[in-house]
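fyi for ur records
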Amino acid sequence: MTPTPLPRSLNHVAYVTRDTAATRAFYTEVLGLKLVGYAREEAVGSTGEPMAFLHTFFSLGDGSCIAFFEIEGVDIDHHESALPRWAPHLALSLPSRAELVTAKERLEAAGVEVVGIVEHEGIWSSIYFFDPNGVRLELTFQNRALNDDDAAAADRAVDQWLQEKLAVAS
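which gave:
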């Protein structure tokens, strides 16, 4: 059997918005992304459901996109999730710590509440904030490349987590 090809990059990640105007303003004016594409349909192509929507795409520096659906008749967004608000998030890379500091200053000047700079395991330096739809965003600078030692440590951490869960369940 031929193995499934590995995806080579992220094309887009999609979220829901109930306010396309606020979403466009935030992503273009505050984050500086460019609105590069859209799809407007009266039915969902992948399911056939009759549901009007506008799907907008904002380009990141590498050509991948963050996208949003405004769906006719849907008046909820990511503020209403039952998950802890900090857990689901989108982390976007910046090329330097200096640019991370600049981004934090720019966001705060635009009235966005920013948490951080938070240091993670000596690898990532990150700031956190929410967009107008309740999507948590992380801007991060990766201080060094992950290596085989990191992969081995991750395997050990996952094994330990699973063993602890099994012990609690027993």
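The CA atoms of residues 126 and 140 lie 4 Å apart. thats all i got for now
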